[in-house]
Amino acid sequence: MSQTEKKLQLNGREFRLIGTAHVSKESCEEVKNAVSAETADCVAIELDEQRYKSLNDREAWRKLDIVKVLRNHQGFLLLANLVLSGFQRRMGLNVGVRPGDEMRAGIERAQDLGIPVEMVDRPIQITLKRAWARNSLWGKCKLLATLITSAFSKEEVSGEEIESLKQSNEMDSMMSEISEYMPKVKEVLIDERDRFLACHIWKCSGDKVVAVLGAGHLPGVERHLNALAKGEESPDTTDIEGLPKKSFFSRISGWIFPAIIVGLIAIAAVYGGKELASQLAWDWVIWNSSLSALGAVIARGHPLTVLVAAVCAPITSLVPVIGVGMFTGLVQAVIVRPKVSDMESVQDDVSSVKGFYRNRILRVLLVFILSTLGSAAGTLIASAGFVTSLWTYIKDACSSAWTWLKNLFA
Predict the structure, then answer these.
(1) CA distances (Å), 54 to each of 22, 161, 282, in order?
(2) Which label site among 143, 245, 349, 364 has the fewest CB atoms less than 10 Å from its CB?
């Protein structure tokens, strides 16, 4: 077998793994030939049911409801999806292939031959949510930076370079770079999905299974299939099918910072008087309001959107279950309602700064992101000002508390 194909004989069953580059003409032909050549009992495809429906429904973007997306707290997920699909789309333009054509080729050939098709990948929403949840604050910043860089990258990729991505030495180098730069993301996007794919390929019906998947998954899926055949692993994947369970500390950690802010204002009232407490509270409002509103202005939000950012930011900064971006995004979407033309061009517009401002859907997401970042910056600046203004009082309060504890246990 070549570097892009693996044939495994396990427990009396045959598994043929076809590794592809997702925007490769050669991959489309390889998949068609592999499905045609094998008298397979089942063809497994590296897609989930939602992506399979989107692949077949070219009008899917017309049905996008941006208001519903924001209400369901999925603004970041939509942006990540758009950036990733836009990046693949640009890569495919140079070789005349659309993202997912090799998957579509495998499905169509299997259907022509009357072979059952199984979708064996984890839903993309779960994968992205797990990647976000598993990351530290620094990891989240790197992930956002990578997405933004990918969105506006103008790098041209030739057909030869795309084909080289299927070779093991190129793929190993790429996986190594991802592991070093974003280990948690690599763990979720690659390692977990290797296991998920292998387990669902294993559960496919029949003794001969042809599996079509990205070349980067070949080594991991092969390893997990061998472990499943030996009984060293279970085919159960329920532990990676949802969001990671939060510890008690994680569940309350979002409220710790607001509690500290309120506590600092209380310390100011006790030790510095109402005037100091009022000044700190006013600083909190000013910094949050002004910077969140500035973010909405930079995103060219509607004047009412800017006003909502200014009013809501000081409040939402103290309530971790909601964010100012949800309010600003909803107002922008309702007042400047996206048109059908925006939905049709969103995957092209996502690749340029002008496109973000021209497309009403993308501008809603821009308002969502920038007003949120502005509020976060205002929170940090105001908090630093709190500590600076109260440092003497905080030291006195800590000293009094320590004295009280010593007397209590003396």
Answers:
(1) 16, 27, 49
(2) 245
What is the token pair recorded at 132?
């976000």
Q: At what angle do helices 324-335 and 303-316 cross, to 10 degrees?
A: 160
- Determine the Cα–Cα distance for residues 216 and 195; give it in Å rounded to an integer: 13
Tokens for 14, please give them.
């045959």
pLDDT at 170 over 50: no
Cβ contact 115:41 at 8 Å: yes
Pairing of strands 5-10, 13-20: antiparallel
Cα distances from 107 to residues 74, 110, 205, in angstroms, run 29, 5, 16
Task: Tell me the CB-side half-sphere exposure of residue 35, using CA atoms within 13 A.
Answer: 27
| Contact indicator for 134, 244 with CB cutoff of 8 Å | yes
Single pTM value for the model:
0.69
> Per-residue b/e over 306-332, b at no fewer than 16 CB within 10 Å?
bbbbbbbbbebbeeeeebbbbbbbbbb
Locus of tokens 């006003």: 307
Q: What is the pLDDT of residues 108-153, one digit of tens each?
A: 888 888 999 999 999 888 888 888 777 776 777 777 676 666 656 5
Joined tokens for residue 111? 């259907």
- pLDDT range class, residue 274, cuts 50, 70, 90: confident
Q: Among 389, 4, 1, which residue's Cα sits nearest to residue 216?
A: 4
**20-34, 164-178, 215-229, 344-358 — which is least confidently predicted?**
164-178
Length of the chain, in residues: 410
